[in-house]
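hey
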């Protein structure tokens, strides 16, 4: 969850409604209920100054204590001057907002920068999903898709239709089938490890039953981790579970062949670079093939 510093001119009622709606959505996710929320908040100078008021801090503290889901970690991005007085205020605000347990899981950063991005990545946070660039520009693509998905869910619920196959956000061990951008997702990393481990046996097998057995092994492993195989809904753009077993086998088979094709292309590229390097190396003699060796003694 990312929260950008609020503009003082915004309606306080509107901000409260947005936050309540966000927490209502967050509390619906089972994995989030189990593991908690990782919060990333940007605090600008004017917002931070408002928190110096003890009554305001008490109000925020009451809101934090009443949230339906606990915070497993909090990352605060502080956009104000790095001076002794602000460091003192920062300590006072954090002491007022968070208890001892929360403070252990709270980390502060001085502004949005490349260093901040790498630090967040070291905690496994998918920084590409944060709706803010290092230059401070707002990214709207994921936000607009989120709004579109929530509108669809609310519309379906009002009409009495099921929304069980509309997935707001993939779980940790889900395998995502889409065009790029998901290589760093943990479920896809685990899936990639299986492709790497089983690539040779899969392509050396001449029996369809053996290939199917390897695919079933992958499916069983993902299921044992409470993972699912997901794809993007063509009409709505949200994630949906692939429930048809035949379709899952088809996608895993395609993934194996795509992985093998890329592996061979990479190996050929490395061989080409190696051959070029040997040819251009001035202190090495060029390798003599069989034809050159045959004519060598004739001239």
């Amino acid at each position: 969850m990312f929260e950008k510093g609020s503009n003082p001119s915004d309606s306080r009622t509107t901000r409260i409604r947005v936050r309540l709606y966000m927490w209502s959505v967050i509390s619906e996710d089972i994995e989030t209920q189990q593991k908690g929320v990782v919060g990333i908040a940007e605090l600008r100078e004017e917002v931070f100054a408002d928190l110096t008021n003890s009554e305001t801090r008490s109000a925020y503290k009451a809101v934090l204590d009443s949230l339906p889901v606990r915070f497993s970690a909090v990352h605060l991005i502080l956009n104000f001057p790095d001076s002794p007085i602000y460091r003192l205020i920062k300590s006072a605000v954090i002491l007022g907002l968070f208890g001892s347990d929360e403070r252990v899981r709270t980390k502060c950063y001085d502004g949005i920068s490349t260093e901040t991005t790498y630090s967040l990545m070291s905690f496994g946070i998918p920084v590409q999903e944060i709706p803010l660039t290092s230059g401070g520009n707002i990214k709207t693509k994921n936000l607009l898709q989120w709004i579109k998905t929530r509108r669809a869910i609310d519309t379906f619920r009002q009409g009495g239709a099921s929304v069980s196959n509309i997935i707001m956000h993939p779980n940790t061990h889900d395998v995502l089938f889409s065009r790029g951008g998901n290589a760093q997702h943990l479920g896809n990393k685990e899936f990639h490890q299986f492709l790497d481990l089983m690539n040779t046996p899969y392509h050396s097998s001449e029996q369809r039953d053996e290939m199917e057995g390897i695919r079933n092994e992958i499916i069983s492993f993902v299921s044992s981790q409470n993972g699912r195989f997901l794809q993007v809904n063509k009409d709505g753009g949200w994630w949906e579970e692939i429930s048809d077993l035949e379709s899952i086998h088809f996608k895993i088979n395609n993934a194996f062949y795509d992985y093998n094709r890329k592996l061979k292309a990479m190996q050929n590229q490395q061989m080409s670079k190696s051959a070029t390097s040997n040819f251009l190396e001035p202190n090495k003699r060029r390798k003599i093939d069989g034809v050159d060796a045959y004519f060598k003694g004739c001239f």
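The longest strand covers residues 71-79. Strands lie at 2-3, 37-44, 71-79, 106-110, 175-177, 229-232, 239-241.
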